[in-house]
Design goal:
The chain is mainly alpha-helical and about 270 residues long. It has 13 helices and 5 strands. It has a 3-stranded mixed sheet, covered by helices on one side. The chain has a two-stranded antiparallel sheet with strand order 4-5. Helix 2 crosses helix 13. The longest helix is centred in the last third of the chain and has 29 residues. The chain is globular, with a radius of gyration of 19 Å.
């Protein structure tokens, strides 16, 4: 019995450590899925229900749950992208400390893989139902990851550092992953949507303009700004109210942008 308890404690600790590495955390990813759910065309919603059997919101965290399984460990690098000499590369090539025990390829990053999967889905009618379902789950999650500042690795900017919240150390990445919990604690997704997703038709068109790489490129200044607002060792509670509000504004905007863009990709697939 003691042996079993010890095993359960170890497993619990591992799960908790893995959860801390999830981009946007569960709430953030689900919020992005919720925004997308609200903007699907009737045809796209019908097809998502057919292949997923659940909402985009409910499917949003699946990719994080399977990333360390033997079957899907090769997708671990797809959650991020590196920026080096003006090029998008696997995050490992930017000097990050991320290590994966699978061979690395030039296109082993979120942008390249998302584009490849979306291209494959143009022929979804010729794919098995299970392949379509997995591809949809990849798309849902990777779009969210590519809008998370903590998943964009700049070669000239280390992100391997900690800040403080209430005197306690927390990894920069982890803080951003939990942004929804910090800045929208207790806010229901329906309320967040009502407060933040009242974009005009012109604003929605502007968001959808371009492809995945262009979307990330447009967001790079926002990702850089997060590093400036949260330098190594800073105590978050000592930031000015204006600085804290700016972090909330950036992360809230990224949830919204990701949700609308996710809906756009899926609507195009099932048009």
């Amino acid at each position: 019995m003691k042996g079993l308890l010890k095993i359960l404690l170890v497993v619990s600790a591992v799960v908790m450590s893995l959860q801390s590495a999830y981009a946007w955390g569960s709430r953030g990813h689900r919020m992005i899925g919720y925004v997308a759910d609200m903007n699907l065309t009737p045809q796209a919603r019908k097809m998502c229900n057919k292949y997923l059997g659940e909402s985009l919101e409910s499917s949003a965290t699946w990719m994080d749950k399977v990333r360390y399984t033997e079957e899907y460990h090769h997708t671990a690098r797809w959650h991020s992208v590196g920026v080096k000499n003006g090029e998008f590369v696997p995050s490992q090539l930017t000097g990050s400390k991320a290590r994966y025990d699978t061979p690395m390829h030039d296109d082993d990053h979120g942008i390249a893989r998302l584009v490849q999967i979306a291209e494959q889905m143009k022929e979804y009618r010729n794919l098995s139902d299970s392949t379509v379902a997995v591809n949809l789950k990849f798309i849902i999650h990777i779009v969210g990851d590519l809008h998370c500042p903590g998943h964009i690795f700049f070669a000239d900017q280390s992100m391997q550092y900690s800040i403080k919240v209430g005197g306690k150390k927390i990894h920069y990445h982890t803080f951003l992953d939990k942004a929804y919990d910090y800045f929208n604690k207790g806010v229901a997704m329906a309320d967040f949507y009502e407060q933040n997703c009242n974009l005009s038709s012109a604003e929605k068109r502007a968001l959808r303009k371009g492809g995945v790489a262009e979307w990330v490129e447009k967001n790079l200044p926002l990702y850089r700004e997060c590093y400036v607002l949260l330098p190594e060792g800073v105590e978050y509670d000592n930031l000015t109210a204006t600085e804290q509000l700016r972090l909330k504004t950036i992360t809230d905007r990224l949830y919204v942008d990701a949700g609308y863009r996710l809906a756009h990709i899926i609507n195009k697939i099932f048009k």
